[in-house]
Design a protein that fits this description.
- Its EC number is 2.7.11.1.
- It is an enzyme of class 2 (transferase).
- This is Serine/threonine-protein kinase pkn1.
- One of its GO terms (molecular function) is formylglycine-generating oxidase activity.
- The chain is α+β, with helices and mostly antiparallel strands.
- The chain has two domains: 41 residues, no CATH class; 298 residues, Alpha-Beta Complex (paralog of FGE (formylglycine-generating enzyme)), CATH 3.90.1580.
- The chain has eight helices and twelve strands.
- The strands form three sheets. It has a five-stranded antiparallel β-sheet. The chain has a four-stranded mixed β-sheet with strand order 10-9-7-11, with helices on one face.
- α1 runs antiparallel to α2 and α1 packs across α3.
- The longest helix has 17 residues.
- It is globular.
- It binds calcium ion (2 copies).
- One calcium ion (CA) binds next to loops.
């Protein structure tokens, strides 16, 4: 074993953890001579001492417990990288809004291992004592996060709560949940951007859908007309559950059919900031009400006025959809937040126009 090569590895691993360095050294101990190990240790120490503080440290997974509760959720570290967003014209069942494909580069971030559950969402909407329930319209101009108004009817739509995915909230409510979560945890949570969502869902897969879709996803063919407790199917290569299926997931962006034409051929950290309009926003991944062939990484579904069709209130709720039982979300958190997303909050208010 050459002394030089592993020393470079130590340098790489220095951006990781002491455990990673330990693993590297154990490998050296098993395969190298005593002298090599001593050389490695001194070289490694010299290299470490010479390095500036690591910046883009690969984030480590962690568990967040919502303060004031026993409710927790897991965050998975997603490495930065470049991927092809969207689908090729040859992909079966694809829609025009999935192209042209864009070469997207992203920085590392964390994303929820599962969809947000009712146990979690309830802490914001109904349980916690942070924020005042000021009625539908809340959000206003105060930094305090208002609790949602009560839903029209059962917010869980009869599917049950607990570890079931929270659903039928608006994109505004999902964004406000993230803002509340940021305030109570001190960490900047937000919705994943549409690009981050697709990158996380693909986890390196460049095809239309996982070869093992049946093992990974609840869809119309196996869900028996109900969402399921999160994380009960198999995860993807990043260790993320239910990216496809179960509930479809809100993303941060404002939807446009021609969005990718604006970004192509290459984009770094692309995001289309939402406005004060209620619609349209992209949801991703499909859900328990869609046939398996609709569950493709690149498939986009925009929110629509029909999702609040039966809401008799005037104006309609900005927190709950009466006719979108299929939509939920998961949270994300940037390792090094991009400037245009820092402190961004939903601008939707009860006077907001539909679009
Ligand atoms: Ca999902
Ligand atoms: Ca679509």
């Amino acid at each position: 074993m050459a002394v030089g090569a592993p020393a470079v590895s130590i340098c790489d691993q220095a951006a990781g953890s002491p455990q990673a360095l330990g693993r590297r050294l154990r490998i050296s101990l098993e395969s190298g001579s005593y002298l090599t190990v001593v050389s490695l240790l001194s070289l490694g120490a010299a290299v470490l001492a010479a390095q500036p503080a690591p910046k883009a440290v690969p984030a480590a997974a962690y568990t967040e417990t919502i303060p004031g509760s026993k409710v927790s959720f897991d965050m998975v570290a997603v490495p930065g990288g470049t991927f092809t967003m969207g689908s090729p014209a040859s992909e079966a069942g694809r829609d025009a809004d999935e192209g042209p494909q864009v070469e997207v580069t992203l920085k590392p971030f964390w994303i929820g291992k599962t969809e947000v559950t009712w146990d979690e969402f309830d802490q914001f909407a109904f349980v916690g004592n942070t924020g005042a329930r000021t009625g539908d319209g809340g959000a206003g101009d105060s930094d305090a996060v208002s609790k949602p108004s009560r839903a029209y009817g059962d917010e869980a739509k009869g599917y049950g709560k607990g570890k079931m995915p929270a659903l039928a909230m608006t994109q505004h409510a999902a964004m406000e949940y993230c803002r509340w979560l940021s305030q109570v945890t001190g960490k900047a949570y937000r919705l994943p951007t549409e690009a981050e969502w697709e990158y996380a869902a693909r986890a390196g897969d460049t095809t239309a859908r996982p070869a093992t879709l049946e093992e990974q996803a609840w869809h119309a063919g196996n869900a028996k007309e109900t969402p399921h407790i999160v994380g009960t199917k198999k995860p993807n290569a990043f260790g993320l559950y239910d990216m496809l299926g179960n509930v479809a997931e809100w993303t941060f962006d404002l939807y446009a059919e021609n969005r990718y034409a604006q970004w192509a051929p290459k984009a770094t950290q692309p995001v289309a900031l939402p406005t004060d309009k209620r619609y349209p926003h992209p949801t991703r991944g499909g859900s328990f009400i869609e046939a398996a062939d609709k569950l493709r990484f690149a498939n986009r579904q925009a929110s629509h006025e029909d999702w609040s069709q039966r809401d008799p209130q005037v104006p309609q709720s900005i927190y709950w959809h009466t006719d979108a039982d299929h939509v939920g979300f998961r949270v994300a958190r940037a390792l090094d937040e991009q400037a245009n997303l820092k402190g961004f909050k939903s601008k939707v208010i009860k006077e907001s126009a539909d679009r």
